[in-house]
Amino acid sequence: MSLTSTERSLFVFPATLCAAFFIFMDITAANGREFKWIDMPPTHVELRFGDRPVLRYMYESYNDSTPEDRERTYKVYHHVFNPDGSEILTKGPGGLYPHHRGLFYGFSKTRYGDGQVCDTWHSQGNVHQSHVGVLSQTADSDQASHRLAIDWHGLDGEVIAREQRVLAVYNRPAGTLIEFTSSLKPAGEKPLHLDGDPQHAGFQFRASQEVAADTKDLTYYLRTDGKGQLGETRNWNPADSEDPINPECTNRPWNAMSFVVERVRYTAVYLDHPENPKPGRYSERDYGRFGSYFVAEATAEKSLEIRYRIWVQEGEMTVDQCTALADQFVMPAK
User: Fold this and answer.
1) Is residue 13 pLDDT above 90, yes or no?
2) Which of 62, 65, 71, 93 is nearest to 158 (CA)?
3) Contact predicate 216/209, CB 8 Å
4) SS3 at position 163
5) Distances, alpha carbon 165 to alpha carbons 16, 56, 111, 207, 252, in Å
6) pTM of the full predicted structure?
7) Are strands 143-153 and 264-272 parallel, antiparallel or unpaired?
8) Quick one: pLDDT band at residue 30, thresholds 50, 70, 90?
9) Which CATH code of 2.70.98, 3.30.70, 1.10.287, 1.10.10 fits the domain covering 5-92+100-328?
10) For residues 218 and 287, what is the distance between their CA atoms, to the nearest angstrom?
11) Which of 148, 149, 181, 268 could make an S-S bridge to 11, C-beta 3.0–4.6 Å?
12) Nearest in space to 168 (alpha carbons), one of 158, 159, 177
């Protein structure tokens, strides 16, 4: 999974352009245990603390030899485990809407080159995202991190954009806090224009397929105005700019989903950094997918930079707890 020195030179970005996840796990005193990266080629690398799984980075090489192979490999993404490592809380391929995967990022209307438009969300035809390499990684008793180089491919399979993501994991009590900061720039000199709709663009979280298949009636959303009803969702309406729901679904500082996996209730909080492109338009689904999208442009001179956090914990949460997480977002992670 490591790059050669020549390959690495192709991905020299300023430090401020790196994409990053910061994940704070519910971890007790080290007691001699350490984080460690366990590579499991050709499909994924797993991060563990001692023997406990923390997350998986799914990096299998793109393979379009069969429809099944292609569906499995046209995206790279991260799975998140529950705090005790016994269950994966996020979705992989298959099931309802197979283009949904764990923590993922893309745009259904990606314009590049001389006006070509492709869909890096559903990734049909030759369009896909691919893992290029791990630029660096660390792991000890206090933290673990890896920096990833990821290519976005257009209509003919050509590379149209280059992205970096850095994932860092720290000891932290109470739950899992994930900070996702992406830097995306066109592969050539012409701008990259990113657009879509609330359900098919931006940065999104998709819970386990079990939620869609068995427990969606137990899903509810917690928002700044309080706890919603079971099954109730709110979505920015692109078809009607005067829809009264639109203001409430725009530029939220946070949104939270409460869902059930293996008879245990979890809450995931989605935190939108104030410096992200705006307006940020939100969507919710009872089957466990939620997030927001924006319209933006990246150029060779100015990359598209975004920052989000996802907090995951067992049990329910309150408005005050979610608001406190949002208030802390402007502070550096420690």
Assistant:
1) no
2) 62
3) no
4) strand
5) 11, 14, 22, 21, 24
6) 0.89
7) unpaired
8) very low
9) 2.70.98
10) 9
11) 149
12) 177
